Amino acid sequence: MLHNWWTPGKWPNLNSLSSHGAADLLFTTGSLAGCLSSTGRIQKGQKNAEELLSGSIGIFEHVGAKRRAAEARIELALSYYRQGMFSISRNSLLRVLGELNAEDSELRSLALIRLGVVERHAGHISDSLSRFSEALPYLQDGGPLVTGRYYHELGTTLQEIALADNRSEDLDTSNHHFQRAFYEFAAIGHHRYAAVVENNHGFLLLKLGRFQEAEIRLVHARKLFEEFNDVVRTSQVDDTLARLYIATNRLNASDLASQRAVNCLEANDEEALLAEALTTRGLLFCKLKRFTEARAILEGAWRIAERCGDSEGASRALLVLFEEMYNHMDEPDRHYIAARMRELLEHTQTASTRCRLAKCVMLISTDTP
User: Fold this and answer.
1) pLDDT tens for residues 91-115?
2) Could you tell me if 223 and 186 are in contact, meaning their C-beta atoms sit under 8 angstroms apart?
3) What's the topology of domain 103-189?
4) CATH T-level fold of 191-262
5) Most exposed residue of 138, 265, 270, 277, measured as fewest CB within 10 angstroms of its CB?
6) b vs e for 31-46, b when ≥16 Cβ sit within 10 Å of the residue's Cβ?
7) 3-state SS class at 33
């Protein structure tokens, strides 16, 4: 529909448009560029989305369209998040929330849900839950798309807390939220989001050791994403399948799935997802006793996650490196890793991660002559 005005990766034709029309076109193309990039249809397309959305914000603010500027800032924050720029995304969303009218429930709920997602990926689990609690009163004015997003993201946060801190009541609640989110998305025909829920639900079942049920859901989610030609989300499922295959000792299958995930994510600009996939691949190489390669991969995952502000992801990479390769490190390497772990202890809000990091640091201290 937009081909007369815009070619993906380019600046749109704004000739003869009014200021409002130009801002609308920049907003629409910016949002679309971000979506296309997040599916892998445009490689490295988030920078183009960032430019377009920034242009729309400038014009909206110039003509006094404050609400539309806020809407564009929320989309821009999503682009920052997709690139792994969590701190910038968080600050953008906080600015929007500070400027929106209290009665603007639709945008406030969307901003709060996305802020909850950013906080979760940054390892700030408690802050994530607080944002979802803030969003809850505004849901009654939204439709199933908003409520589906809310329950899916809240379920994912509760899942992380439950698995990390062994809280079975949160597992039950998370499972319920996933089922509700799937129903909401399926009811309005949003099968892409329904497949996202399937992938996360499959991950939950994997962590619970229900491998057969997990594989059924993951294979179904992957099939849906392939039908949508959504290569980025297909790679997310591949990463989850790789973890499943490690857990069930199917290492050759894990190698194939993991390589597919890493290859796809390296070609796109989803940095946080790449860090997760690299951590999985590093763990696989440890299982295969390919320790030299594993170390390089895990250190790469840690650096990418740290650059994103993803303290939880950085912790996961370092913990795999330390726990799987401790006996293959010399003393200077152990102390270097311990120093990085001490830094991460100051940022993570997950009790089990803090406990594991502290145990690793303590082990080094007791082993030192």
Assistant:
1) 999 999 999 887 888 899 999 999 9
2) no
3) 1.25.40
4) 1.25.40
5) 138
6) bbbbbbbbbbbbeebb
7) helix
In this structure, are residues 90 and 311 in contact, taking their beta carbons and an 8 Å threshold?
no
Whole-prediction pTM value? 0.83
Measure the CA–CA gap between 157 and 160, rounded to whole angstroms.
5
For the segment 226-247, what is each residue's pLDDT rounded down to a tens digit?
999 999 999 999 999 999 999 9
- What single letter denotes the amino acid at residue 253? A
Is-contact 12 26, C-beta < 8 A?
yes
In whole angstroms, what is the distance from residue 56 CA to residue 80 CA? 16
Quick one: tokens of 59? 């014009």
- Please give the span between the terminal C-alpha atoms of the chain, in angstroms, as a whole number: 70
267: exposed, middle or buried (Cβ count in 10 Å: 0-12, 13-18, 19+): middle
Integer Cα distance of 159 and 178 in angstroms: 10
